[in-house]
Amino acid sequence: MRIFAVLRRKGSCRAHRCFGRLGSARGECSSMMRRWLPAALWVLPLLAQGPPVIYPGGVVNAAHYGRPIARGSIASIFGENLARRTAAAEGYPLPKDLAGVRVRVGGYADSARTESAVVEAPLFFVSPGQINFMFPSGVSPLLWSPEYLEVENEFGVSERYLFDETPILRRAPGIFTLDASGCGPPAVLNVAPDRSVSVNSPANSAEPGGILTVFLTGLGAHLFQPPDGEPIPTDRVLWLGGVETVVGREGYVNWPYLKLDEEEPRTLFAGKAPGVVGVDQVNVRLPATVEQGCYVPLRFTRRIFEHREARLGSQVVYVSVRSGGGRCRDRLASFGLVRWNVTLAYEAGAVVEVAVQFLFGPGNLQPRFENPEGFSDFPGNDWLGFNDIGPLLTAPAVSCLDPRPRRLLDAGTLTVTGPSLPVAELSRVETAAGPRYRGKWVLEQFQPGGYTVRASGGDGVGPFESTIELPAPVTPKFDFPPGTEIDTSKPMTFRWSGGDERSRVLIDLESWQPGKNFLRDRYVLVAARATRGELTFAHFTLVPPRRWQMAIGSEDQLRFTLRQRTKDESTAEKFSADGLSLGGWQMFEYRWVWDGLIPAPSE
After folding, report:
1. Are 481 and 512 spatial neighbours (Cβ–Cβ below 8 Å)?
2. Are 440 and 342 contained in the same domain?
3. Is the pLDDT of residue 478 over 70?
4. Same domain as 197, residue 138
5. Is pLDDT larger for residue 326 or for residue 314?
6. Per-residue pLDDT for 21 more than 90?
7. Which of the residues 150, 341, 445, 456 has the least number of beta carbons within 10 Å of its own beta carbon?
8. Is the preceding peptide bond at 256 cis, omega within 30 degrees of 0?
9. To the nearest 10°, the Cα dihedral for 421, 424, 430, 431?
């Protein structure tokens, strides 16, 4: 590099004269070394550096550091030798060359994937280990199909980072956090009736029925937004939508799990935040009946997804809500839950599993059931159907510790007995939160009847005894051996006999990749009563060719599951014990599974 070029030019002071025999040239060489040494010290670290290296999975959403990411959003690159020094953009428009660093995204500019394009990304920040940039919206946001990313700096060019493991989608929301950790207090403002704003915090709660402004990235690119790197004008409203807000209902989407006295959060605006680059905002009005406390979960999800190989919802963050505002207050409660899960073979045999836990802490501790009003939207008022992939995909690929002061209570020794089981002690599994209790038995035949749980009592829960009456299982009137071809261009009817008024039947239709053990999509049919006897899936695409409206990949298989379970809260077996302020429930679920089915659409 530069130092070696200087040495080659200065023939009067060859290396042997400086480092070999000492003589009259010593002073001359010493003088030259004083001049060249600073340059050498600057260049030698540069020579030791290799080209930029992007870590596997190192391109992530800049809000929660998970995947996937969306076009037009803020993203981060993690790796080594990404830049020689740390630098940040000083204003707008964002530079595409920052401290000698460039980020290029290559892909296709047309839906036919014939016209290749390379786009340089606007840069917020560069450092040796991290780059923050705006993911390009593309030549045309609706047609842009990114394939790879590469980083170039004075050390060289990185290997191409392929987007196979980091899907690039139209929408992939991530909520910003105040501590930039992706898991801390969220960047959420309370909006007062006079339109003044303040940061939501445990000391400054939102009011039920009030408005929150949530800052995030990943709602996607807008057709009429300014060129990449330029801020959204403050006098322009760019609505994007495409997300559903879920507040206070962890693990469930809004519909059909809303209770009779609950409302859905109302989205007032979901689009580009004005005056900045890559930042989105959602203004949402909280329901008047929203859960209150210091840790009310909030997240964004979608009912319909364009790419089910990715987790499309935001991470879960926690906001503070209290009537009248001010400092939040948590209502602590305790609740016990006993779940009986019985997997039945089509002809004979069963696996019986019991899972028991006693939960203490804030928030809603009890399971949810389908809202009866949801059935009224379907013919006959006794069934419903919905895409249930949302709850599985609401969390990004980032693990955040639950900040709520929740723990599991000790109930001593637990035993169970019933017609199919002798008296058996449940295994006690110690976790960081406290003990969980489990049991599993393989039976030649399952017998319905009364099954009893007894607890000796422990530090958190007193002794109790509770019996649940497990009903006779329904009898499926269909069978699909592995390898059965399923015509996805025609309706599918599932029939069974038996059942009672205290249980409900559900049919899960799932597409999944067995090699990756990856669930792509799931649609659920629900019979309000197990005695209904049949359910039909007839949910088709709106455009030809006629196909089931489910995401089914070329390597996917289908899996059907019939579930018979506790109908609702009113039919759960209740019990009480010292230490359980909400008491406890016993619930059951029977299931039959038909796996390894082949989707075979008819032409």
Report:
1. no
2. yes
3. yes
4. no
5. 326
6. no
7. 445
8. yes
9. 20
Choose the final residue of a domain: 115, 146, 169.
169
Same domain, 585 and 479: yes
The one-letter amino acid at 461: V
Cis geometry, peptide bond prior to residue 93 (ω within 30 degrees of 0): yes
214 CB neighbour count, 10 Å cutoff: 25
Q: Are strands 427-431 and 317-321 parallel, antiparallel or unpaired?
A: unpaired
Note whether 213 and 281 are within 8 A (CB). yes
Q: How many residues does the chain have?
A: 603
The answer on 541 and 410 residing in a single domain is yes
- End-to-end, the C-alpha distance of the chain in Å comes to 65
Span 387-442, pLDDT tens digits: 775 544 444 556 678 888 999 999 999 999 999 898 999 999 999 999 999 999 99
Beta bridge partners of 588: 340
pTM of the model: 0.81
Q: Determine which of 165-179, 367-381, 425-439, 540-554 has the lowest per-residue pLDDT on average.
A: 367-381
Strand ranges inside 456-502, DSSP E: 464-470, 475-476, 485-486, 492-497
Q: Are 201 and 100 in the same domain? A: no
| Domain membership of residue 282 as a residue range | 170-330
Residue at 90 is within a domain: yes
CA neighbours within 13 Å on the CB side: how many for 421?
Answer: 26
Point out which residues pair with 317 in neighbouring strands: 298
Question: In whole angstroms, what is the distance from residue 130 CA to residue 570 CA?
Answer: 54
User: Are 426 and 292 in the same domain?
Assistant: no
State the CATH number of the domain containing residue 129: 2.60.40.10
305 and 337 share a domain? no
Domain count for the chain: 4
Residue 469 structure tokens: 């009456």
**Cβ contact 332:294 at 8 Å:** no
The answer to whether residue 399 is domain-embedded is no
> Of 169, 192, 215, which closes a domain?
169
